[in-house]
């Protein structure tokens, strides 16, 4: 029993000893060790820098997708790429409100849907203050839910506001401040164009995003859809949201099926509208990121391969330099497995040494990248990448150290001792 | 004629019809041509012979550093003939202490670390290694040179370290291939005194030597020629050694 317990202990002891021996060996041949592990150092530092940059960018972009909303669906009329309606007049294929009647009952994966009618930038005025270009959009009450915009003060559009096309509006906080209105602006009246509107609600400002508004502040005003169209048959687009990102494709199919029926598109004819999923864009982005990662790994594995060959070379040199030592160790009772362990551990320690330096340089790179652009702000080597790098270093050590180690282990003690 | 036949202590080494042929390309050198030998516990054997007679080849086989082409080798009753590299390494570690002509110390580590080396490959836990190594060094009279590197030691001291390393695992035989070959005669004498003491403490010793005065310290002289043993006599009966033996003993009586 005692003997049984001693075996793994002896192996651990041997490995510890080999590691110390290897560190000593590295210390003795400092320059050589650094030069040898250069491949590993470059490999590990570049992989960790690339992963850090990608990781940071990915996080930033995903965060923006989240802000923008990954469940969103956009619908707009579009001329088909082929078929008889190829060059049809835009006005002929416009959306009509009746085409969307009862759509939610028929599309179970769709959560909300809202018509949007964009007007040109309008002048807005409050007492003596004016703001030149305000984006006034006619939307339905569900739009705020789709866009995840909360009304912090006042109320959303009521059914009556919408059916009667009342002259009410919901404005963004930045417009309130720009117009120098009271903080409690609900109940005040502002002029949009030439019409008076009652402010019934206040919206939180849009969270800052990298893309889209290009840093320029957007003053937003929302009025009921019916108020915007004045009940007339006008051009509009549609925004919807699916119940979860997972059912995005189903929602798209349901909407397509429903609209083809209500727009009387014959089977076999192409769509005259477009259903655009935000989720698709997210998937696309993830795919591209995945490709870049793959390419990065390819490049890195080539540099690790080159590094590994360097390790193998130096280990072969080490074995032949120390043939007499190997012979002596064998003569005093080192088993082949012990010699194998010693040289494998030495190769692994050498690679880990390169790995540590590589990670350090990688951190430096990551820090430098994080300074270059706001998109790269959160560049940082994630813990798993550090582990992965060390894993790779160990693997390279074992794989490329194996051949020299086997060579050492197979040496005949007498021949080794006789080696000059 | 067998010098060991009258001994009653247990047999440590028994080889029968050992042969060893070296091949270099198509050329063959028969270094050992069927050697048989028995060595008992606490014997002190000197192997002599001309250069190329196969002494080193024999020692390497006895030390399990090499394997014979044919014949049998029993060490303490265990047949080593068919052992693999790992099994032989274990036997070397546990049963054999080998002293080389050129010392074979690792240059970068201290005397103490050199002596510890065999213990690394035994199951001796690291906390007791240092003590055992220090004891072995004291046994060879180098208690005050433990932390010296090999290049800070004289030839004789180096060979003492090598002997300490051979002894640290308490082997059943001490094998020495020309242990004094690189030393001057005064230093050689010191090593021989050490062997004498080890022998007195019960160590079984086999050494190879060219020099009759060194061989004279042994109790049994085995002579080889062309890979065969042609004479195996107690030292008192060996004509060549007798002169030194008598000289040494007369010197001893004079000293008294
Ligand atoms: N590795 C080898 N390869 C080929 N031949 C060898 C080898 N080792 C020894 N020999 C040959 O075997 C024969 C015996 O050699 P060995 O070394 O045993 O002699 P020795 O008695 O120890 O000689 P010396 O007294 O010079 O040390 C010699 O003829 C030698 O040339
Ligand atoms: Mg020899």
Q: What does this 3D model show about the protein?
A:
The complex is a heterodimer of chains A (420) and B (256). Chain A has 420 residues and is of the alpha+beta class. Chain A folds into two domains: 14-65 and 286-418, no CATH class; 110-242, no CATH class. Chain A has helices at residues 2-28, 30-36, 38-68, 103-106, 143-146, 159-164, 173-178, 225-229, 248-262, 278-321, 323-331, 336-372, 383-410, 413-418; strands spanning 72-77, 110-118, 122-126, 129-139, 151-154, 168-172, 189-192, 195-203, 220-224, 237-242, 273-277. In chain A, a hairpin with a 2-residue loop joins strand 3 (122-126) and strand 4. The longest helix of chain A has 44 residues, at 278-321. Chain A starts with a helix and ends with a helix. Chain B is α/β, with parallel strands linked by helices and 256 residues long. Chain B has one domain (3-255): P-loop containing nucleotide triphosphate hydrolases (Rossmann fold), CATH 3.40.50.300. Chain B contains eight helices and ten strands. Chain B has helices spanning 55-62, 85-95, 111-120, 126-139, 155-167, 185-200, 212-215, 239-255; strands at 11-24, 27-40, 44-49, 70-75, 78-79, 96-99, 173-177, 204-208, 220-225, 228-234. In chain B, helix 3 (111-120) runs parallel beside helix 5 and helix 4 (126-139) packs across helix 5 (155-167). The chains are: A alpha+beta (420), B alpha/beta (256). At the A-B interface, helix 1, helix 11, helix 12 and helix 14 of A face helix 2 and helix 3 of B. The complex binds adenosine-5'-triphosphate (ATP) and magnesium ion.
């Amino acid at each position: 029993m005692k003997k049984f317990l001693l075996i793994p202990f002896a192996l651990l002891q041997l490995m510890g000893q080999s590691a110390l021996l290897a560190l000593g060996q590295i210390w003795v041949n400092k320059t050589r060790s650094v030069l040898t592990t250069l491949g590993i150092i470059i490999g590990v530092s570049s992989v960790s820098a690339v992963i850090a940059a990608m990781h940071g960018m990915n996080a930033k972009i995903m965060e923006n997708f989240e802000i923008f909303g990954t469940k969103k669906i956009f619908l707009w009329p579009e001329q088909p790429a082929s078929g008889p309606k190829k060059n049809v007049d835009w006005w002929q294929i416009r959306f009509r409100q009746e085409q969307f009647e009862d759509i939610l009952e028929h599309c179970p994966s769709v959560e909300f849907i809202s018509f949007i009618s964009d007007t040109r930038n309008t002048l807005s005025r409050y007492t003596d203050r004016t703001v030149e270009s305000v984006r006034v959009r006619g939307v339905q009450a569900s739009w705020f839910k789709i866009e995840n915009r909360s009304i912090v003060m006042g109320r959303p559009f009521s059914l009556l506001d919408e059916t009667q096309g009342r002259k009410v509006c919901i404005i963004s906080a930045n417009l309130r401040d720009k117009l120098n209105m009271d903080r409690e602006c609900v109940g005040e009246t502002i002029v949009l164009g030439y019409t008076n509107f009652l402010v019934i609600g206040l919206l939180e400002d849009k969270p800052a995003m990298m893309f889209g508004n290009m840093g320029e502040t957007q003053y937003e005003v929302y009025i009921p859809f019916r108020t915007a169209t004045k009940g007339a048959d006008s051009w509009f687009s549609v925004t919807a949201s699916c119940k979860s990102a997972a059912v995005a494709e189903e929602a798209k199919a349901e909407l397509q099926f429903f609209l083809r029926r209500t727009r009387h598109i014959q089977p076999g004819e192409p769509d005259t509208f477009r259903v655009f999923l935000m989720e698709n864009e997210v998937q696309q982005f993830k795919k591209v990121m995945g490709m870049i990662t793959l390419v990065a790994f390819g490049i890195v594995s080539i540099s690790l391969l080159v590094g590994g060959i360097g390790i193998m070379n130096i280990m072969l040199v080490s074995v032949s330099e120390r043939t007499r030592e190997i012979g002596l160790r064998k003569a005093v009772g080192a088993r082949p497995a012990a010699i194998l362990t010693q040289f494998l551990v030495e190769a692994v320690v050498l690679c880990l040494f390169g790995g540590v330096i590589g990670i350090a340089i990688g951190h430096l790179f990551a820090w430098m990248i994080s300074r270059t652009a706001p998109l790269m702000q959160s560049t940082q080597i994630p813990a798993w990448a550090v582990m992965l790098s060390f894993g790779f270093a160990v693997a390279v050590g074992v794989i490329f150290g194996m051949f020299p180690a086997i060579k050492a282990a197979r040496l005949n003690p007498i021949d080794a001792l006789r080696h000059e | 004629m067998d010098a060991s036949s009258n001994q009653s202590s247990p047999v440590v080494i028994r080889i029968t019809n050992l042969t060893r042929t070296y091949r270099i390309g198509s050329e063959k050198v028969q270094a050992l041509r069927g050697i048989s030998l028995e060595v008992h516990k606490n014997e002190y054997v000197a192997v002599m012979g001309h250069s190329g007679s196969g002494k080193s080849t024999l020692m390497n086989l006895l030390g399990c550093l090499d394997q014979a082409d044919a014949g049998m080798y029993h060490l303490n009753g265990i047949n080593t003939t068919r052992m693999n590299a790992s099994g032989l390494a274990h036997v070397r570690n546990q049963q054999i202490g080998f002293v080389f002509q050129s010392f074979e110390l690792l240059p970068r580590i201290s005397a103490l670390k050199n002596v510890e080396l065999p213990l690394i490959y035994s199951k001796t836990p690291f906390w007791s290694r240092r003590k055992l190594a220090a004891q072995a060094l004291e046994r060879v009279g180098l208690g005050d040179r433990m932390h010296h590197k090999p290049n800070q030691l004289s030839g004789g001291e180096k060979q003492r370290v090598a002997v300490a390393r051979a002894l640290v695992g308490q082997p059943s035989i001490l094998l020495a291939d020309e242990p004094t070959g690189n030393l001057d005669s005064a230093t050689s004498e010191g090593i021989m005194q050490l062997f004498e003491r080890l022998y007195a403490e019960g160590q079984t010793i086999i050494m190879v030597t060219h020099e009759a005065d060194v061989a004279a310290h042994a109790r049994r002289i085995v002579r080889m020629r062309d890979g065969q043993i042609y004479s195996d006599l107690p030292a008192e009966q060996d004509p060549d050694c007798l002169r030194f033996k008598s000289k040494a003993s007369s010197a001893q009586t004079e000293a008294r």
